[in-house]
Fold each of these.
Amino acid sequence: MPDVVADGLRVLFCGINPGLMTAATGHHFARPGNRFWPALHRSGFTPRLLLPSEQQELLSYGLGITNVVARATARADELSAEEYREGGRLLTLKVARLRPKWLAVVGVTAYRAAFDDRRAVVGPQARTVGGARVWVLPNPSGLNAHWTPAALAEEFGRLREAAAE
């Protein structure tokens, strides 16, 4: 799954790993029930709701997308602890090379596993990764019923405000 990246982004969003639909289409967060694109728009990161097929347009807003683990699966719980740890190591190198202002990991469980931080919660983190500040966002999957679309947009908006400072 190719990254949508450039040097010096405002925010590099980092998904857990590609789902099967994402892998099949080549577009990040492609599953219709995924709430990433609506949250991005409702939070003010994008002036309109982008389709997954328009992902390259993110670069014009200083935004990008990558993943912790490159392997596509039907569900994130199919990934091993070792895959998460190796993904965190490779992500650190990628972030150091690309130098985004913020790394936004989409999914607190993935962040905890990739960076061995069992106490992490949604929101800004004290640590940096590859020189970038880190914000952990809720997983926008439609399966994550704990976060409503409005609450997701609010948390994405908190990051947008921090990234604008």
Note: DSSP finds five helices and five strands in the chain.
Amino acid sequence: MTVTFPLTGEPLALDLLNTRTAAGDLVADPAGLEGWLAAQAGRLTPVGEVGAAEVAAVRAVREAARPALEAARCGERPPADALRALNEALSAAPAHRVLAWTEGAGLSAAAHRSAAPALRLAGELAEAVAELLTDPRVGEIRVCEAHDCVLLFLPAHPRRRWCVASVCGNRARVARYYARHKAESGE
């Protein structure tokens, strides 16, 4: 079975949170996490083989990120245990810059984390969560308005109401259409 991710391309932390949908956990096993990592290609350091340790690390960061983000969206203090879990992920795989020379491109300073793959992945995701929590736009993050959707998004346009207009937006429009016509026909 191929897992499809309903919404990608948001800030990385939101893409992570959106792996828990109304239908369930999309990264509950190594195959699901591999699919999600493939959908995030170029945004994270390649992990190699994905196993139970990577799944557990990613899910731990996601579960700490959710209450922290809910609080930050409302301008409230995030729960101490959520911050502690995120800080532990960050400290388990600290980042440092590595200078490299590439002919034609020149000097670059890429972030590097020396840690086991699961810890490195958790550290990178915790870093993305920290960036989102401290972003001045954190209060603008919205939950999709579709009644059966729990996905989060950062709207580029203030009138955006759905995570994916062609999916949730269309379902909402079709439901309104049928409700309107049912009321007009007296059913």
Note: Strands lie at 20-21, 24-25, 95-102, 106-113, 142-143, 152-153.
Amino acid sequence: MQTSDKAHQELIQAWRAQARSKPWLTLSFAAIVLVILILLLISVYQGLHLAHFNYAVSGGMAGFIATALGSMMIYFTRTISLRTQDSLLGFAAGMMLAASAFSLILPGIEAAQEILDQRFLAAAIVVLGLGLGTVMMLGLDYFTPHQQASAVLCGVECQRLSGIWLFVFAIALHNLPEGMAIGISFTHGDLQIGLPLTLAIAIQDIPEGFAVALALRSAGLTSTKAFLIGAATGLLEPLGAILGFTMSSSIVLAYPLSMGLAAGAMIFVVCHEVIPETHRNGYQSAATSGLMLGFAVMMFLDTALG
């Protein structure tokens, strides 16, 4: 027990050292969290539009169900080739990038232009949101456990297992901004924006849920435990949807700003987590082809059918 307490104290000290080593990121991340909390309080005080709120929660639940379906695939297969995994994740990454552009950034600029009646300022608001979303994800990535933290907690003998759990944690963490994007897209009850974005996120949640369950089973867990934990990572989707909807419903300019924030967070996740994961096994061409196909499919769905 004393060893565990000492390890956690060392971990806390390591996090404090991290915060001191990058004060600009620490202060920026804290400011963004404060702004989000203020917007949430304003929205709660004003009251939520329950009809649109139900859309947001339903969209978040769709992401959770898709994650659970992906995890359930662990029962029907013993293995899947790395090429296929990378192709599927690349396809999901392409859909996410297209959804960020056509379901968040462009509608965000249009919404801001309707409010400000000035194209330049409208684009600036969304660009500011992109920056906030990027800094938010940089902060989450910087202040959450990484390999050095796992070494403090469990030592060299469990590095492989801790690495798998860190992968699971990363997947669960980036489900939060995906859920926020869904909630934000339904703020005004516009199904032409919300449905394509929700579809894109739900589709990419399926291979992610399967990847988590597969990683856990490779670590020695039973298929049932791997499925349950993999499905549980999707619970942050409805939570993020509630957070995003509430935040963007506060003041008029919060909606386009939140659209930019969600887009920045999603693009960061794709570039920082998904694409590097698809390129580390030597199947870059298959992954990139999948990405281009996913982008094309999502662009068609969003522009032709949206």
Note: The chain has twelve helices and no strands.
Amino acid sequence: MTFLRVDIDQLTRFARALDSSLLSLREARSALDHVRADQLGTADLDAACDGFQERWAYGTRELAKRVKTVRQGVDTSAVEHAELDAAIRAAFLKAGGGRT
């Protein structure tokens, strides 16, 4: 027999950690946006930096999309587990004649 155990508070903490990671990604992307490749040196270095900036921006945008999707799933999971827990509790109370 298996037991499913969901800690709603832990899901909430996980959601906050995901929010924090999104903020960190935005801050990192913003910091790199202020660096201009033409200020760094040679044409080859400038071109390499431009390429990196484009890949970094694309990668962080894609990662942010995935983190947001996970965040939505965590929120949905927390709500649904809380509703299920309340329904089970209510069913047991009803079956027990309302005794706690």
Note: The chain has a mean pLDDT of 83.
